[in-house]
What does this fold into?
Amino acid sequence: MSELTLISVDDHLHEPPETFSSRLPERLRERGPRLEPRPEGDVWVFDGDEHPVHPLTASAGRPQAEWGTPAHYSEMRPAFYDPVARLADMDEDGVVASLCFPSFSGFSGTPFIRCAERDPELALLSLQAYNDFVCEEWAAAAPGRYIPLVLLPLWDQVASAAEVERTAAMGAKAIAFSENPFRQGLPSIHDADRVWDPVLAAAQAAEMPLCMHIGSSSHVPKTAPDAPRMIDFAITPLNATYALADWLLSGHFDRFPGLVTCYSEGGIGWMPWVIERCDHTWERHRGWVGSPVERPPSQYVADHVLGCLIDDRFGGRNIDEVGVRNVMVETDYPHPDGSWPNSRQQLLKSVGHLDEDELALVCRGNAERVFRFTASGLGAR
It folds into this structure.
């Protein structure tokens, strides 16, 4: 087991305090994102909006009783915001390479989308500052250890296509896309005018998968306003079920045969049922409601869909229903659902029954293939 190494396709970074101020034009720095230390917890301030640093995003290595206490950068593990310091934590956990979603910047850039309603230039330049940081600083600090994941200015689909091309030239390998743009006040992926086509075409041409993290739409399911918070945590992965049904029945995979979608932090145990349900719906109802897809939805999974798991024993037992080549692993470092520093032990409880070749695909091979990335450093041999 000590020789097992992982590529985690869903981790998180905290933007260093100077991420934006060091890259924005001087005339915009006061309104651009900046970190303000406060007794009740550090806060990112962006064009008048305040975004507190959520303590749960900085929970690795802390006792559960402290997960709800104020979060200050001065008290964080440097590995949360320093790519060089993080390598030791990755090595301890057997993680040879990591794909990191942002923190303040949102899992699909929601703070920039909100800013764009007031000042599109500030929003775009701030978002590009984040992408430049990811490509030129975070990933460059340890080549072969970080898979560069970038944001898009989703409020402008033409500009988004241009940002795909710009960042691909910088070495970006993946796109943090929204699980449901409609929830963010944007056109849905089913828009009749096909406004997302330039983005999807650019992603396909650059061979950059769309990675959709649960909560990336800035909306999570809630059963009732007074429901215990524990329920919110339990059902948040339902967002991934909605997203997969959206994409399987959208018709985009017919028009963009090279497009790949990844569903982050949703697990995989639900996937066989959703795929089966989409097939059932297509077979029983396309005759009277019509269908934008040409084939049974299950036939698109092999080439277009990857699920991701941390600890999913039911999903692991039924992994053949999804496809061993369609599953990747994640550690969610440094979030509370994360498995650090015991990711290998925890993962084997779900997929330890796989043979050596299958386990190698799930742990590393699928990620290297999908993101066109060769890991180096720990375990690269």
Residues 325 and 366 are 6 Å apart (CA to CA). The chain has one domain: 6-26+78-370. Residues 6-26+78-370 form a domain with the TIM Barrel fold (CATH 3.20.20.140). The chain has a mean pLDDT of 96.
